[in-house]
Amino acid sequence: MAGLRDDLRDLLEDVRVGTTSPDDALERLSALPFRDLGFARVDLHRELRQGAPEAVLAEGKTPEQIARIFSALLDGGAGSVLATRADGDARAAIRAVAPEAEEDALARCVWVARGVPEPRGIVAIVSAGTSDGPVVREVQIRAELLGTSVVVHEDVGVAGVHRLATALPDVERADCVVVVAGMDGALASLVGGLARGAVIGVPTSVGYGSAHGGTTALNAMLASCAAGLAVVGIDDGLGAGTIAARIARGRD
């Protein structure tokens, strides 16, 4: 958010001192709300409005479309640009237009961080099993790009509940805790009864048989008796990371 705000402030200052004409400034401002690429209208003001830039969902898009959207966000002054659900071809297309991009193949994420806010607040992520790792990483990447400090404890599910003990100090001090769990989703209720801060449950599609691709975990979390637990959709690491960062930072 700071990057776009700084650009706008510099533009207004240029008008004030006379190095940019009002007409030129108006032309530049008229292109700011969104960029029309024909196949997509890229929201360039979302970071200014909400403190979190638009993310690019790579699924359902061609590599060329993904790269053009990614470039538009970078050109529009986004502090960070993140593409999710990006396969190898999508990640390669982004690296071609943004060589500085970082990627995580497990999370299927690729991103560029140019103006990440100074970290404020703590987000703790706990997961039930190692198989939940891709969603854990998506949560972590998004929350860190939005300016929070993140601590992660993986594979501390209720089948061996004693393993949670090592995570409890971080759970207790965190401003927001994200619980990532498939199977029966029971870890969310357990942590929801222990954490000081808000808890966000992320049901994952991990599990056999009657796990039903995450539906069982989702319903279990929604039916939790832990009053401080909120729930996002199945495998929605992006949503959980965004909400957790806004909570932890005190809602910029």
Oligomer: single chain
Low-confidence stretches: none
Rg over C-alpha atoms, rounded to the nearest angstrom: 20 Å
Percent of residues in helices: 25-40%
User: Helical stretch count?
Assistant: 10
The chain-level mean pLDDT equals 90
Structural class: alpha/beta
Number of E-type strands: 11
Kindly report the spatial arrangement of strands forming the biggest sheet: 8-7-9-10-11
Distance between the termini: 10 Å
CATH fold descriptor of the largest domain: Rossmann fold
- List the secondary-structure elements in sequence, H or E: HHEEHEHEHEEEHEHEHEHEH
- What's the story with the biggest beta sheet? 5 strands, parallel
Approximately what portion of the residues adopt beta-strand conformation?
Answer: 15-25%
Shape: globular
CATH architecture of the largest domain: 3-Layer(aba) Sandwich
Describe the structure in your own words:
The protein is α/β, with parallel strands linked by helices and 252 residues long. The protein has two domains: 2-113, no CATH class; 122-248, Rossmann fold (3-Layer(aba) Sandwich). The chain is 39% helix and 19% strand. It has helices at residues 2-17, 22-30, 46-50, 63-75, 88-97, 133-145, 168-173, 186-192, 215-222, 237-248, and strands at residues 34-36, 41-43, 56-57, 80-84, 102-104, 109-113, 122-127, 149-153, 176-181, 198-203, 229-231. Helix 8 (186-192) links the parallel strand 9 (176-181) and strand 10 (198-203). Helix 4 (63-75) runs parallel beside helix 5 and helix 6 runs parallel beside helix 10 (237-248). It is globular, with a radius of gyration of 20 Å. The mean pLDDT is 90.
